[in-house]
Specification:
Largest sheet: 8 strands, mixed
Number of strands: 29
Shape: globular
Structural class: alpha+beta
Strand order of the largest sheet: 5-4-8-2-1-11-14-13
Radius of gyration: 28 Å
Oligomer: single chain
Strand content: 15-25%
Length: about 900
């Protein structure tokens, strides 16, 4: 499953509740024969099921997972004897016990169940949705534990079986499932038709899929595999970009994995109502509309990146997750982290000009931020209940794992790592595997101690920091690395800790400019090299999953030459490392801003993404009102010369990077720096975009509209709302929704708050509330609104909406708000967001501590000569 990216929200999106237990291993399924007859008008469905099982030991009862299922008739057949089964439901644990009078012998048996269920409005299990034309459809979303809402089953990933799916639908309805249709039979009454699908390969229950509704498609093929993009009629042509990406990725993956795509056909389905970003059902991948459909000629580069990443991510799952599936959810990272890492590879080959490896690095730094909390968790984390499983789908499982895999690939070499991947897939195809299986395959392929190195990153929580100290002795460079666990909380960082990592580190010396790689296995180690250098950069290539800490004089030396001596990737990691030192008082805020000032010659958009994120944090949380004007002036002095060079008007033949950089400069100058010229440009571009969206680059328009909205009046608000209500393009819908959250006017802000519950789709409302809670101008009103409407938020969003809100609260930065958040969620617990609440409270506390310590230093720096001159260096 693809989490929704930061373009929308950082919230995790596996949706489930309750406290289910594991099934006893009494029987294992071999085949499901399933017939579904959905009634969209009545929001219900009838089901008929036969499960062929292998009974492992003589027993008089078999337990299945089931939730919101009405059992009507159940029989169990074995040894030529059929018995009627008594059904006992355990609603709390979502189980059904099927008991018979005579014991069932070990060996083959079959369970036949006639039942009914509901098409719920919770975007999970078998649910009812509605497209923009008002047409209803039924769709499934089963990960992690919701297949049991559509059919009684062994709803655990290790219970793989084949599926024979049949759907009886209204005449004219499109029916899509995991495998190709074998037949489509008109009903005798002319009102229905029955679609029978071919038998699937063995797969886990959470990967089964059914979609029934009004859909149209475009199609293509790659390596002989038919590929279709389905959407609401009239929108299917917006799937052309995704189709081209899918065709390229199909061929790339077939070559990389050495195993041809195993599912015969591949369908992508865009759904108007869908909780996650996307879901990797075998042969039938479902998406939010915005993450699959786009008008390629007019869409933003960022959206095209997101769509390409999502397509590549879900396709990677067809091998890593579907063909080979984790044994249990504690190894969810084997699915998600690998797909996150792998998704960049075909895109880098398809669109090298996108420099996607730098976007990956931004994901690494965000994972490090999450991993710097005391309330983080190991990549491999025990999870039993659905609530525990849902919390695993976060930056650690996705982005940290991807970063660790990139580090391992660099350490082993690309071809060696690929050989290990291919060996793992071939050994466990159509079966299940564990982390140990993967490390074993890599160890055997590389003959290196992967099985010793990787557990230190997978089985223990946290991110290591390597403190870099250098000295020159007799013409020889001595570089001492001292490792310890990094915490964003100052007191925890200063305390002793016992964690020890096996870290592949690469050092870059100013004298040679090249990287030297070593394995750091002890708390402190010294490495020698010929010649002496004024500085050593601690993470050459920025491939390592660790932070680097520098002595003040070394940081001064790096800052003086960073513009030419470091790569853009190394700039990003340096900015992240210095910021981490500032957070724990190992450096001052002026040190960080001095490093920023050394980037006057940098023109890489991803570097400015990192800059914008940190400089906005400073603006929102560290700058006192009395210093705000000085800080805005410093922002203008830094960014204005770059903007003057880039210009606000697009130039013929300019690169995509130039366009992206222009958008980020507009944000820096217009949103943070309050530069009058940038604000005027934003107003002009907003007006132009509202009249003709194709006349303005959408990356630029996204920020321009938000800047214009800050001081926007009722008339401007009404224009945005009118455009939103008429929008049929998913990207336009997103842009206008985000603009609604950017108004500062209290009355207009209240209208947006009301819209989150009364106007937005249920999957969008909580995300918009989270955005409103991130903005200091709207946060107090948004928090009041959340508390006043909590029951409504829980209803529309379920555990997803509640979790998004809990995460949004982590952006506050006051002791009072920390207390209010703690007290409110103590009274209104969210079982699927217990860790998220701990992390939010921790983030608030760390922000308050940083504000108290670094705020006065920032004020002094802004008042001094360094703050008034971008050309000066401020590291003392």
């Amino acid at each position: 499953m693809k989490r929704i990216l930061l373009l929308i929200s950082g919230v995790s999106l596996l949706i489930c509740v309750a406290s289910a237990q594991r099934l006893p291993r009494t029987a294992v399924p071999e085949n499901y024969k399933l017939t579904f007859a959905p009634d969209l008008a009545k929001a219900s469905f009838a089901g008929d099921e036969t499960i062929t099982v292998r009974v492992l030991e003589s027993t008089s009862q078999i337990m299945l997972n089931a939730a919101q299922i009405d059992f009507q008739d159940v029989t169990i057949s074995s040894g030529g004897k059929t018995q009627k089964a008594k059904v006992t439901l355990d609603e709390k644990n979502e189980m059904a016990t099927l008991a018979v009078d005579s014991a069932i012998a070990a060996g083959p048996a079959s369970i036949t169940i006639r039942y009914s269920g509901i098409l719920n409005d919770q975007l999970r299990g078998f649910y009812l949705g509605k497209d923009d034309n008002g047409n209803k459809y039924a769709a499934t979303q089963f990960e992690a534990t919701d297949a049991r809402r559509a059919f009684p089953c062994f709803d655990e990933p290790a219970y793989k079986a084949t599926f024979d799916i049949t759907v009886v639908a209204d005449k004219g309805m499109t029916v899509i499932s995991n495998s190709p249709a074998a037949s489509d039979i008109p009903g005798a009454d002319g009102k229905k038709h029955t679609v029978i699908f071919t038998t699937t390969p063995k797969m886990s229950s959470y990967l089964a899929a059914i979609v029934v509704g009004n859909f149209s498609y475009i199609e293509g093929s790659s390596d002989g595999i038919p590929i279709r993009i389905y959407a609401t009629p009239g929108q299917e042509k917006m799937g052309a970009f995704a189709l081209e990406m899918a065709k390229f990725a199909m061929h790339y993956y077939n070559q990389y994995f050495g195993i041809k795509y195993p599912y015969g056909k591949l369908d992508f389905v865009a759904l108007a109502d869908f909780s996650a970003g996307a879901m990797e059902n075998t042969g039938c991948i479902t998406f939010r509309e915005m993450l699959l459909l786009t008008d390629e000629k007019n869409s933003s580069l960022e959206l095209r990146k997101v769509i390409a990443i999502d397509v590549a991510h879900e396709m990677a799952h067809q091998w890593f997750g579907d063909l080979v599936t984790m044994q249990w959810w504690d190894d969810l990272w084997l699915n998600e982290g690998f797909a996150t890492w792998m998704s960049s590879k075909p895109i880098e080959a398809w669109k090298p000009e996108w420099n996607l490896q730098l976007d990956d690095l931004l994901g690494t730094t965000r994972a490090m931020d999450a991993d710097s909390l005391a309330s983080t968790h190991p990549i491999h984390q025990n999870a039993q209940t659905p609530g525990e499983i849902v919390e695993l789908a976060d930056a650690i499982t996705y982005d940290k794992t991807a970063a660790v895999l990139r580090m391992l690939e660099t350490y082993l070499g690309d071809s060696t790592f690929q050989a290990g991947v291919n060996s793992y897939l071939k050994q466990h195809a159509y079966a299940n595997a564990t982390a140990a299986d993967f490390w074993r395959a890599q160890t055997q392929a590389s003959k290196k101690p992967v099985d010793v190195i990787m557990p230190t990153f997978v089985n223990q929580a946290g991110v290591p920091m390597a403190m870099v100290q250098t000295s020159c002795e007799g013409g020889s460079q001595k570089t001492t690395l001292q490792q310890k666990r990094y915490f964003a909380g100052r007191e925890q960082f200063e305390a002793d800790n016992s964690e020890l990592w096996q870290i592949p580190v690469c050092l870059k010396e100013s004298a040679s400019g090249s990287g030297k790689c070593e394995l750091l296995t002890q708390k402190q180690q010294t490495f020698s090299s010929q010649g002496c250098a004024p500085w050593v950069y601690g993470n050459a290539g920025a491939e390592g999953y660790y932070r680097s800490g520098y002595q003040p004089q070394a940081l001064r030396a790096i800052a003086k030459v960073e513009g030419t001596a470091l790569t853009p990737a190394e700039h990003i990691m340096l900015l992240s490392d210095v910021w981490s030192s500032v957070r724990v008082d190992q450096a001052k805020i002026g040190d960080y801003l001095g490093v920023v000032q050394g980037l006057q010659s940098e023109r890489t958009p991803a570097v400015f993404d990192m800059l914008a994120e940190r400089l906005k944090f400073i603006y929102d949380n560290l700058v006192d009102n009395s210093d705000r004007t000085a800080y805005q002036q410093w922002i203008r002095q830094f960014a204005r010369p770059i903007a003057d060079q880039v210009g606000w008007e697009p130039k013929a033949g300019e690169s995509l990077g130039q366009r992206s950089l222009r958008a980020r400069l507009l944000f820096l100058l217009g949103s943070i720096g309050q530069d009058p010229q940038a604000v005027a440009v934003a107003a002009k571009l907003s007006d132009q975009f509202l009249h003709n969206p194709s006349s303005v680059d959408h990356d630029l328009a996204f920020f321009a509209l938000q800047i214009a909205a800050r001081n926007g009046d009722q008339a401007f608000y009404d224009k945005i709302l009118a455009q939103l209500q008429d929008a049929r393009n998913p990207e336009m819908n997103f842009i206008y929704q985000q603009t609604l959250t950017s108004f500062d006017n209290p009355a207009l802000l209240q209208k947006t708050l009301d819209y989150t519950l009364a106007g937005a789709r249920s999957q969008d409302g909580p995300l918009l509330l989270g955005r409103l809670m991130r903005n200091p101008q709207s946060a107090p009103a948004a928090w009041d609104f959340v508390r006043a409407h909590w029951s409504d938020i829980e209803k529309i969003g379920g555990s997803f909406g509640s979790g998004a809100t809990v995460e949004g609260a982590g952006n506050f930065c006051s002791a009072q708000m920390q207390t209010e958040v703690k007290d409110f969620f103590a009274a209104h617990p969210v079982p699927a967001a217990e860790r998220t609440l701990k992390q939010s409270l921790e983030r608030i506390g760390d922000c308050v501590d940083m504000k108290n310590r670094q705020g006065p230093d920032l004020a002094a720096w802004l008042a001094g000569p360094s703050g008034g001159s971008v050309g000066s260096q401020s590291i003392n």
